[in-house]
Design brief:
Layout (H helix, E strand, L loop, with lengths): L2 H15 L12 H10 L5 H14 L3 H6 L2 H8 L5 H19 L7 H5 L6 H10 L10 H9 L8 H11 L5 H14 L12 H6 L3
Length: 207
């Protein structure tokens, strides 16, 4: 089975399983999503969603967040891990948003990736889910499934992103990356993978 045929099957099955998708990180606007995605590094979405209500009660805008002592931010986000580094990044990027971007989250990769704690994946999430610009953020779920589905041989997420952008239509990138994440969590885990309970892998196994 050709890669394009496998990709077509993946899209059809994902659309059937997940006709509607949503960003699993709770947020209210571009700034709160940026902070939530930053916190999600090496942390589950569920834990982030338990932490952010208290954090956003402290400060809901870049202007307010820049004034919160970094120690207080760290105290609140400690359950997310890497709290010292993340707290410093949150306070610093908030100040930069105020000083350089009028308190707004910028809509360009260069400006986003120049912010402390914001890498390419985080920037891609903001570009796709806030500004509607086609992007394909690749996390560990997507990287793993792209290999299992033989859509990419990439040894790192950068190559996987390039491969998936080639195989999937550009107008589907923004929703497909979410659907693949949902599928990986529900049906296709890294450990204890059961082919009989994984409809896409089962369909593709002979392809």
């Amino acid at each position: 089975m050709k890669k394009s045929d496998r990709a077509k099957i993946v899209v059809e099955m994902l659309d059937e399983l997940y006709p509607e998708v949503y960003v699993p990180l709770h947020h209210q606007d571009a700034f709160t999503l940026l902070i939530a995605v930053l916190l999600s590094a090496q942390c589950t979405d569920e834990r982030v969603n338990r932490v952010t209500p208290e954090l956003f009660n402290l400060a809901l805008t870049p202007q307010a967040m820049a004034r919160v002592p970094v120690e207080r931010i760290e105290e609140v986000i400690r359950p997310c891990g890497l709290s010292s580094r993340k707290a410093a990044a949150i306070q610093q990027l908030s100040g930069i948003l105020v000083e350089r971007h009028g308190g707004q989250v910028p809509s360009g990769y260069d400006e986003l990736e120049a912010l402390p704690g914001v890498g390419h994946k985080t920037a891609s999430v903001i570009m796709s889910q806030v500004f509607g610009i086609p992007a394909f953020p690749v996390d560990t779920h997507i990287h793993r499934l792209a290999k299992r589905w033989r859509l990419s041989k990439g040894s790192h997420v950068v190559q996987t992103e390039k491969d998936l952008k080639r195989v999937f239509s550009r107008d589907r990138w923004n929703d497909l990356h979410l659907k693949i994440i949902f599928y990986g969590r529900q049906y296709c885990p890294a450990r204890g993978h059961d082919l009989d309970k994984c409809p896409i892998c089962k369909r593709l196994q002979n392809g």
